[in-house]
Amino acid sequence: MKPLSPLDQVFLWLEKRQQPMHVGGLQLFSFPEDAADDYVAQLADQLRKQGIVTAPFDQRLTNRFGQPFWVNDEHLDLEHHFRFEALPTPGRIRELLAFVSAEHSHLMDRERPMWEFHLIEGLKDRQFAVYIKIHHSLVDGVSAMRLFQRMLSADPDERNMPPIWSLPLRSRNNTDDNGPSMWRNIAHLLGESGKQLGTVPAVTRALLGTVNRARKDPAYDSIFHAPQCVLNGKITGSRRFAAQSYCLKRIKAVCRAYDTTVNDVVMAMCATALRTYLMNRDALPEKPLVAMVPVSLRKDDSSGGNQVGIILASLGTHLNDAAERLRYIHEDVKASKERYANMSPEGILNYTALLLAPAGFNLLTGLAPKWQTFNVVISNVPGPKEPSYWNGARLEGMYPVSIAMDRIALNMTLTSYCDQIEFGLIGCRRTLPSLQRMLDYLEDGLAELENAAGI
């Protein structure tokens, strides 16, 4: 029996019918070249025989004296968690995304281990899909990504590979560039405040610098200047999921043309998509939208340690010109990184926790709806760099499915895979109708930058 950490309990406190707190992922596979037409059915039979379930997939919630604990589920029913399903005809990506939208809207049973694995057949062109969802109190999005990558192989001939629920879980403290979430920053500050007292002078100077700059520059991102927007209203429990792949070579060509980073270009694409979507709804604020963005602060090639900061980045949505908007985002992100340059890792965590504290307070209590710290979440989680396979099936695309919340109705998460950038957008179906149109607007944003650079 293991007690939940204060951070993990936060995800249980936040959960309500209109605000499920699970993360997920959609993976698209192609049949092996020599596979029979019933390959997916055979795979389902193989997976049903994987009776060994390892942590955290064998853990369920219980309460002792008002305190939640994880305990082994001695009556785990694998048929409840593993589901073999078929899409309705004609089996297009449209039907697949509709399936994920519906499934991601459903709360999970807290009397059982809170995860589901959906093996989906019925897609056209000899393809199938896997949709996995896991409660955020059980693993975070980065841990879920790592688990899925461990399920894969670089060998297309490898067979009889175990599913995700049969893999041993590595230490959750073994983090790298992918880094903490907003809540992890806040919990770090509240839970280890005594240890962090030495960072107070640097944190105070940085926070005062942010406030002073905000007073002088109304367009500057801060806890005071995220505009009120339809993205930040109350939400329902119904979700819309939209996903698409974009060519990484095109994005890198834009980076070279403007001397920016991949993350800058991706954010500029998101800014264009948001600007166009809101303009078409006559709902674009005069002030620029602000995004909450995790960024890597690593200066070397090392892989250990946690060197990540969370910044509030102005998206320049008040600017008409796409190239000007990209430069604006680049300079804003650069200034945020420079703010962290002389701070320790503890200081960075404390600074971001303080900066995001109003958002955390509002999400937990709902008592300060006018404290709009940011409008949207844009997160980039690195994925496999080489082609990957699962039981001989080639992974064609992997799309993150994150969390939408009250006053943060849209989450734009992306990951990299080989020569692709994979976008997964999740939003409230009622608050943000026709969300799937943003996929076209993302393409428009990239094309505008290419045209402006003469690519």
UniProtKB/TrEMBL annotation:
<dbReference type="Pfam" id="PF03007">
    <property type="entry name" value="WS_DGAT_cat"/>
</dbReference>
<dbReference type="InterPro" id="IPR045034">
    <property type="entry name" value="O-acyltransferase_WSD1-like"/>
</dbReference>
<dbReference type="GO" id="GO:0004144">
    <property type="term" value="F:diacylglycerol O-acyltransferase activity"/>
</dbReference>
<keyword id="KW-0012">Acyltransferase</keyword>
<comment type="similarity">
    <text>Belongs to the long-chain O-acyltransferase family.</text>
</comment>
<feature type="domain" description="O-acyltransferase WSD1-like N-terminal">
    <location>
        <begin position="4"/>
        <end position="266"/>
    </location>
</feature>
<dbReference type="Pfam" id="PF06974">
    <property type="entry name" value="WS_DGAT_C"/>
</dbReference>
<comment type="pathway">
    <text>Glycerolipid metabolism; triacylglycerol biosynthesis.</text>
</comment>
<keyword id="KW-0443">Lipid metabolism</keyword>
<keyword id="KW-0444">Lipid biosynthesis</keyword>
<dbReference type="InterPro" id="IPR009721">
    <property type="entry name" value="O-acyltransferase_WSD1_C"/>
</dbReference>
<keyword id="KW-0319">Glycerol metabolism</keyword>
<feature type="domain" description="O-acyltransferase WSD1 C-terminal">
    <location>
        <begin position="305"/>
        <end position="449"/>
    </location>
</feature>
<dbReference type="InterPro" id="IPR004255">
    <property type="entry name" value="O-acyltransferase_WSD1_N"/>
</dbReference>
<dbReference type="GO" id="GO:0071731">
    <property type="term" value="P:response to nitric oxide"/>
</dbReference>
<dbReference type="GO" id="GO:0006071">
    <property type="term" value="P:glycerol metabolic process"/>
</dbReference>
<dbReference type="InterPro" id="IPR014292">
    <property type="entry name" value="Acyl_transf_WS/DGAT"/>
</dbReference>
<dbReference type="GO" id="GO:0001666">
    <property type="term" value="P:response to hypoxia"/>
</dbReference>
<dbReference type="GO" id="GO:0005886">
    <property type="term" value="C:plasma membrane"/>
</dbReference>
<comment type="pathway">
    <text>Lipid metabolism.</text>
</comment>
<dbReference type="GO" id="GO:0051701">
    <property type="term" value="P:biological process involved in interaction with host"/>
</dbReference>
<keyword id="KW-0808">Transferase</keyword>
<protein>
    <recommendedName>
        <fullName>diacylglycerol O-acyltransferase</fullName>
        <ecNumber>2.3.1.20</ecNumber>
    </recommendedName>
</protein>
<dbReference type="InterPro" id="IPR023213">
    <property type="entry name" value="CAT-like_dom_sf"/>
</dbReference>
<dbReference type="GO" id="GO:0019432">
    <property type="term" value="P:triglyceride biosynthetic process"/>
</dbReference>
